[in-house]
Amino acid sequence: MSSPERPPISRRGVLTAAGAGATLLALDTAPARAAAPSPLLLHSPGRAGAPSVSGLHLQFGSDASSEMTVSWQTPLPVRNPRVMVGTLTGGLGRTYGADTRAYRDPVTREEVRSHHARIRGLRPDTEYLYLAVHDGATPEAGTFRTAPRGRRPLTFTSFGDQATPQVNKAMPTEQITLWTQDNYGSPFAGDTTTAVERAAPLFHLMNGDLCYAQLSGNPTRVWRDWFINTSRSARNRPWMPAAGNHENEKGNGPIGFRAFQTYFEVPGNGGDDEFQGLWYAFTAGSVRVIVLQNDDVALQDGGATYISGYSAGAQRRWLEDELRRARADRGIDWIVVCMHQVVISTADSNGADLGVRRAWLPLFDQYGVDLVVCGHEHHYERSHPVRGHQGNSTMTPIPVSTDPHRADTGRGTVHLVIGGGGMGFTSN
């Protein structure tokens, strides 16, 4: 199908390497500006026996120019979790109370509490300072910048499949400490966090398979270690996550995503409670970012349980409505989709998924999706713009251009496989 007519606007996308496996994407409609400062802060223990503020991280609301959520975790109940917000020049101003959600891990029976302070009414393209704290704890600080509004330049980074930066695996339980776990990973998972912070993007898209807790005998420890690593960056800019197959933990909620849904407070999708956090969208500048959960349509069985078809079509209906409204919005120039499993890959390990092709590609073509970032395959590759598919059993996408110097997303969708976040590599 042909894409609907777009507003007459000049657009330019630049893809450059950010180092250590990260990919930096700049969507420019105006001259670039210097990046915001990005301090890395030391962690302080709690006082008076209260657990410390751990795993501090940020998430945008649906309007990234005015909404931010500050989140952290504790292993025990706490009193009065809250966030104080101000500017670098004006000092701390308003205080926002945090809501608390909890889950009990089905493997360890450990209960984890996650605290989320939703901040609304922020000014666009503005730098803020905040402190997260609960009674008896030492405050933890961070900064963030809200998104610009309208056609302004912005930069984001993206990768999937990170894991934790342990230096050994399969150690005896009594020898396991921070960074030495019984799941898979590599020391490079720490390097990629550093690479994101060095690039200082407005936000980072995490393309699924965050920490691989599902492979561990102690999932809560793996989540905790992943947040310790990523909080070095995620306290200063939102890391917006897609749930991959390894976020599916058997017995953890109705469809296995309870841990993921507890840790993150992302924009709502208007669906049932059990689906909240699994697909969502937000607007930053003239970019509409749509995040999907592909196990709902994938044929591959890569998680703890096989859950293909769990939403009974609810996610696809939501996606089509989102795409229709985004393409009709003359203030949106770019539609970017973030998801985990891939529709195009040259790898001989997981490979492209026919279920994802069947479910999503016709919608991407119909509504002119510009860019898809995904993970799953632990390497990097970029497609030519594609539109439509061959009439074969695998629905092979058709390139509309093979120009290596110019990728015109007005003619077709570019797919980026960015699964080199630290979990090791697959062969091509």
TrEMBL record:
UniProt xrefs under Pfam families: Metallophos, Pur_ac_phosph_N
Positions of the Calcineurin-like phosphoesterase domain: 201-380
Alphabetic keyword roster: Signal
Positions of the Purple acid phosphatase N-terminal domain: 55-146
Presence of the UniProt keyword Signal in the record: yes
Top-level taxon in the UniProt lineage: Bacteria
Protein name: Metallophosphoesterase family protein
Organism of derivation: Actinomadura violacea
Classification lineage: Bacteria, Bacillati, Actinomycetota, Actinomycetes, Streptosporangiales
